[in-house]
Amino acid sequence: MVGPDFDTEFRDHLTALFRWRRDVRRFHTTPVDEILLAECLQSIPLAPSVGLSEPWRVVRVSSEAARSAALNNFETENTQALAGYSGDDAATYANLKLSGMREAPVQLAIFCDDSTEQGKGLGAGTMPEMRRYSVVAAVMQFWLSARARGLGVGWVSILDAPRLARDLDCPDGWNLVAYLCIGYPLEASQSPELEKAGWETRTPDLRIEER
User: Fold this and answer.
1) What is the DSSP letter of 102?
2) Averaged over 176-184, what is the pLDDT?
């Protein structure tokens, strides 16, 4: 049995999806349709996972208390991060919008359950970090699924991860991999915001080394 025949048109659309998958930080506050969100979330269990461990754990951050705790976490860590820069870098950093946590109607905290017994440790005994890589793969599938449905996703990484896990009352063994802001983007662009702001430039070509 062979798989489906993905034709040239499909491949072109897939490449376009890769290009339009950008880290979104500016959102409309319009609520996201729950059916649409559910369709995106259904992509997560389709992700590959080491030993079929499926270690992803998804927490929807909805309550005012939980969102306030997450936002305060980000703002505290962002202030500390700014203090690590000086000169032009500090000025540029201060003007960057690095999260959509105030506006995004949907916010998800994605954890890796490093204590899971599912998968019987296959592949994780030698490389336990593979469980977290599996969660990253699930995040990317969700991200592409959301973008294909007109939603934007922003990954917030300036956080005290253990503090967030405590604030969200997560079980021991759950470790934060991604905090995602989801909603309808204010604007669409193929260029990363950091590139447009002059923070960094994208490497034009992939370098492949041979050994």
Assistant:
1) T
2) 98
Q: What is the pLDDT of residue 202?
A: 86
Residue 1: its pLDDT value, please?
A: 63
Work out the end-to-end distance of the chain between its first and last CA atoms, rounded to an integer number of angstroms: 36
Structural domains in the chain plus CATH codes:
22-187 (3.40.109.10)
φ/ψ of 11, rounded to 5, equals -65, -40
**What sign does the CA torsion over 53, 40, 174, 78 have?**
positive
Q: What angle do CA 43, 164, 69 make, to 5 degrees?
A: 110
Tell me, what DSSP letter sits at residue 33? P
Nearest to 77 by CA among 59, 58, 91, 98: 98
> Is 111 in a helix, a strand, or coil?
strand
